[in-house]
Amino acid sequence: MTLSAPVVQTGLDRLLAEPERLNALKGQRLGLLVNPTSITASLDHAIEALREAGLNIVRLFGPEHGVRAEAQDMEVVEETVDPLSGLPCISLYGHTFESLKPRQEHLEGLDRVICDIQDIGARYYTYVYTIGLMMQACGEASIPVTVLDRPNPINGVDIEGNIVLEGYDSFVGMQPIATRHAMTAGELAHYFNRFTDWRCELEVVELRGWKRAMWFDQTGLPWVMPSPNMPTLDTATVYPGQCLIEGTNLSEARGTTRPFELVGAPYVDAPVLKAYLESLKLEGVAYRLVAFRPMFQKHAGQTCRGLQLHITDRRRLRSLTLSYAIIAGVIAQGSSDFKWREQAYEFVKDRLAIDLLLGDPAQRKALEDGVDPRELAMANRTARAEFESRRTECLLYHD
């Protein structure tokens, strides 16, 4: 099968197409931070493509889920050798929080680290923090970092949500950025390098042809699942809000074929929830009553009653407002079965998962107190003013 030429050229494809860039890297001992999304427009993986171009890849680094992304969320990755390339591999998602940052011995013998991973555009998605921690470790070791940029799949314009407050940072929010940040990984790398202590000698190979208003399906690039429960662009579109469901005992439908688009639990009165959501007249979404049975994780093997979220206008959809409303609607049903997640979450045991995801416990308390979810979502704009100002200084694409 011949793939049509994409509208957008990724940082990886630019690197491979520009002899001057390639020649500057030849002879260097390179580390590569990658996962399955690290592909060319013709579906060749960066590992093979860069080696065939004459570069010396000596070590791989794998983020959460692993280099080949076979591991589920929050599942320890212990790979030491990549089975396809035979290259040694360092897992950056182990048993402890400390495992998230490369140790200095992991970087020994390297002249440069290249990072190429597709982000999703939401603060909770951990890959950009893995890039940031790699930048910090490389800065301490005086090793340059090259980030090969990729599009923000849910566009680079629309911003949603608050910022993480001090004391509520975690691997789902390590820096004070908005929930939906509307930046590319390359732009965030510049943000980290300028406004945090994740500093290094940084180069970003920029996208060519990307416009900020683009969604991923307008780029012409092939979609590869960034993680096991991110199968489609629709999943990514609802994810900035629906990831909050992880902070509850509602099922976000991991263990089904429609994670994050389905939501429910055995105790949910789905018709009442649907009627409540429809009364709010949220734009860009319609609701369908469903029953689903997750194969693993929350309520595994049990029938969950709930809703499927059908996107009717992604430009108008505000996923965070929608998910505030879903949680508020379930709380309003008054079931004693509804609970906030209390188990350890992303290496944190002393704070609720929902507080880490929201980045501000006042948001949770407002939901518990019955504040209108539309007002709650709108109330965050002042708190993120500093982020938006800093973000503007780090944008690479202007159209």
UniProtKB/TrEMBL annotation:
<dbReference type="GO" id="GO:0033922">
    <property type="term" value="F:peptidoglycan beta-N-acetylmuramidase activity"/>
</dbReference>
<dbReference type="Pfam" id="PF07075">
    <property type="entry name" value="NamZ_N"/>
</dbReference>
<protein>
    <submittedName>
        <fullName>DUF1343 domain-containing protein</fullName>
    </submittedName>
</protein>
<dbReference type="Pfam" id="PF20732">
    <property type="entry name" value="NamZ_C"/>
</dbReference>
<feature type="domain" description="Peptidoglycan beta-N-acetylmuramidase NamZ N-terminal">
    <location>
        <begin position="31"/>
        <end position="233"/>
    </location>
</feature>
<dbReference type="InterPro" id="IPR048503">
    <property type="entry name" value="NamZ_C"/>
</dbReference>
<dbReference type="InterPro" id="IPR048502">
    <property type="entry name" value="NamZ_N"/>
</dbReference>
<dbReference type="InterPro" id="IPR008302">
    <property type="entry name" value="NamZ"/>
</dbReference>
<feature type="domain" description="Peptidoglycan beta-N-acetylmuramidase NamZ C-terminal">
    <location>
        <begin position="238"/>
        <end position="397"/>
    </location>
</feature>
